[in-house]
Amino acid sequence: MIDNDMIVVETKSECDAAIIWMHGLGADGSDFPPTIPYLKLPEELAVRFMFPNAKEQAVTINGGFVMRSWYDILSMGNGREINEAQLDVSIERISALITKQVESGIAPGRILLIGFSQGGAVAYETGLSYIAKLGGVAAMSTYLPRPIEDINTAAESTMPILSIHGKQDDVVPLSLGENAVKQLQMKGYHPDWQTFSMAHEVSIESLTVLGRWITERLSK
């Protein structure tokens, strides 16, 4: 099922779990549906996968070129200077999607957020700040867009977090992923930090680990 804002893939006619998966900068919601088979999820899981499209807007680091982005990135480096107002709009949008799933009857604990690169930054902040404890957040090849002390961390520190990163990532350096994990640990969270021999991408091996993590979260 496709609408103007997202692609939805359901593994059963009636679903009792939801996964909201955010793409990276310049991509769109069609980026990750083809990876679902590589997750090797149990056939009995009734999951609604939601792949929202970021809005089209100018991105400063790409010469002001208009592309799909969750927020503008003003400069690169060891950190990221970003448009925080646009980030907040994206967080509000994903939070609204979560709330809609809860209203449809899916428990917050059976809702997972997954994000790659810029989408992972949105997944981090949304999961940490959402009003109810979610089933977990999987952040791939990404970073915390703001210092964790600036995030309203409403989520319990027991919320499962999977952090995946490529050792050869030259877009989001490994050090940024490590820094996010350290900040989470300082706040009392216990992220599962997994690194792989890959660049700024998704590998079969990393999808296998992600699939196991999803299965553990949703088979309970």
Architecture, according to CATH? 3-Layer(aba) Sandwich
CATH superfamily descriptor: Alpha/Beta hydrolase fold, catalytic domain
- Name of the level-1 CATH class: Alpha Beta
Given the helix and strand composition, which structural class is it?
alpha/beta
The largest β sheet comes out as: 7 strands, mixed
> How much is the average pLDDT?
94
Distance N to C terminus: 28 Å
Domain Phospholipase/carboxylesterase/thioesterase: 6-211
Family: Belongs to the AB hydrolase superfamily. AB hydrolase 2 family.
Protein name: Phospholipase/carboxylesterase
GO molecular function, one term: hydrolase activity
Give your account of this protein's structure.
- The protein has 220 residues and is α/β, with parallel strands linked by helices.
- It has a single domain, classed as Rossmann fold (3-Layer(aba) Sandwich).
- The chain is 29% helix and 24% strand.
- A 7-stranded mixed β-sheet has the order 1-3-2-8-9-10-11, sandwiched between helices.
- The longest helix is centred in the middle third of the chain and has 20 residues.
- It is globular, with a radius of gyration of 16 Å.
